[in-house]
Amino acid sequence: MIHVGLLHDEVRGGLNMQNNLDKQAIPVIDIDRYINKSVTFILENYSTIVERNRTISDRLRQLEVSDVQLQKDKNNSRFTSFKLPTNHYTTLSRYAVATLKECNTTDTLFVHPVATSKIEQSLQNPDWNPNFNWRETFCNEADKNINVYHNGEFTIDKTVITYLKDIPKVHYVSGVLNGVYMTSDGRTIQEDHHLMIDDMVLANKFCEVALYYIKRDFDQNYKENLETILFTDKLFI
Predict the structure, then answer these.
(1) Residue 220 lies in a domain
(2) 222 with 131, same domain?
(3) What one-character DSSP code corresponds to residue 189?
(4) CA atoms within a 13 Å half-sphere pointing along the CA-CB vector of 220
(5) What pLDDT was estimated at residue 235?
C-alpha cells in the first residue's frame, strides 16, 4: 500500500517544478480524480503498455492473477455461469473443462470472448457456436459473472481464467481543508483510501500520467505526447 498523500506530494511537486500550475490551487478531490483517471487508463491499455515498455512491464505483470478456477453460479439450457473474483478488472485469458456425456469424454475447451450483442448470432453460426468436437466455445461477461456457452450440447465442468486485478480508487480525505469529501456522484467518503499496490515505480508512472492530464487541461501551451510518457523510461517526477 502506498499512502495517497505521497501521490499528492509527487503530483504537486511535478506541477511546481515544471509549470508552476499549483498556483491555480487544484483541489484535493481533483488531484484524486486525475490520479484515478491515470490508473484506469493504464489498466485499460495494459496489453499495449506491457508490449511496448519493458521497464514497467514486469511491474504491471504483478497485477496479473493466473489460473484461477471460478466458482460455479448457475446453469441453464444455453450456458453455465461462473462468478468473477471480487478484485477482477479484466480477463486476459480463459479456458473451460467440459464433458460430452454421450461418450463420457472430458477435455479442455478454448473459450472465445464474444460481445453480449453477438450472442444470438454466435449460437447460430457454425464457425462460432459451442462445439465439443472442435474443443471450442464462447463466453460473455455480465453482472460480475462469466457465462460459458454449451447450448445443451455438453456440460461445462469448470472455468479457469487469468485476469488483471482492479486497483481501487484513491481518496485523500485527510487532505481536504474543510474535512468534507464528496465525490462527483454524490457519495461522501469518510476516510483515506490509499493506492493498493506496493510498487513505487508503478505509482510514479500513475502520477506522471496524472500530471499529463492536469497540464493538458490547465496549460494551453502544453504539447507533451501521452505516448512519450507511457513508452519511455523516465519513471520519476
Answers:
(1) yes
(2) no
(3) P
(4) 0
(5) 42
Question: Does residue 17 register a pLDDT over 60?
Answer: no
Same structural domain for residues 51 and 80?
no
> Are 48 and 70 in the same domain?
no
Which residues, including other chains, have CB under 8 Å from residue 129's CB and lie 6 or more apart?
122, 123, 149, 151
pLDDT digits (tens, 9 = 90+) for 145-201: 999 999 999 999 999 999 999 999 999 999 998 889 998 888 999 999 999 999 999
Classify residue 139 by burial, with Cβ atoms within 10 Å: 0-12, 13-18, 19+: buried
Whole-angstrom Cα distance, residue 71 to residue 64?
Answer: 19
Confidence check: pLDDT of 111 > 50:
yes
Query: Is the full-model pTM beyond 0.85?
Result: yes
List the domain range (segments joined by +) for residue 44.
Answer: 4-62+168-230
**Residue 221 to residues 161, 192, 215, 225, Cα–Cα distance (Å):** 45, 34, 9, 12
Q: Are 110 and 162 in contact (CB under 8 A)?
A: no
**Cell 520519476 found at:** 236
The domain total for the chain is 2
Give the pLDDT of residue 236: 39
Same domain assignment for residues 68 and 158: yes
Return the bridge partners of 112, or none.
Answer: 138
Q: Is beta strand 105-113 parallel, antiparallel or unpaired with respect to 136-142? A: parallel
